[in-house]
Automatic annotation (TrEMBL):
Keywords: Membrane, Transmembrane, Transmembrane helix
Segments passing through the bilayer: 6-26, 38-55, 67-86
Keyword Transmembrane in annotation: yes
The keyword Cytoplasm is assigned to this record: no
Molecular-function GO terms, alphabetical: sodium:proton antiporter activity
Protein name in the entry: Uncharacterized protein
Species, as recorded: Rhodococcus rhodnii LMG 5362
Pfam family, one: PhaG_MnhG_YufB
Family listed: Belongs to the CPA3 antiporters (TC 2.A.63) subunit G family.
Length: 96
């Protein structure tokens, strides 16, 4: 019962962060602030959702897999953010 309530609270908080990141993506004026809002909010939102799901997992192995999913998503989000930010100043589409 307590774990179910914890799951609902954590997943709901994660959804709030996903929503905030999406609003930041749509509302912020330039590429860098949009990327910042999206990567920070989505990483925290995914972390909260996975923590909520970890409360429902029966084994340590299942929780470890969820943790690995979050770590891979953190690395992928950071890598994509850096790649997009590096190309943001390139207006002509040519590589230097």
């Amino acid at each position: 019962m307590i774990l179910d309530a914890l799951t609902v609270i954590l997943v709901s908080a994660g959804l709030v962060f996903f929503t905030a990141g999406t609003i930041g993506l749509l509302r912020f004026p330039d590429l860098h602030s949009r990327l910042h809002a999206l990567t920070k909010a989505d990483n925290l939102g995914l972390g909260l959702i996975l923590l909520g799901l970890m409360a429902q997992v029966d084994s340590f192995g299942g929780a470890a897999k969820l943790l690995l999913v979050w770590l891979f998503a953190l690395v992928a989000g950071a890598t994509n953010g850096i790649a997009l930010a590096g190309r943001g100043g390139d207006r002509g589409g040519e590589s230097s």
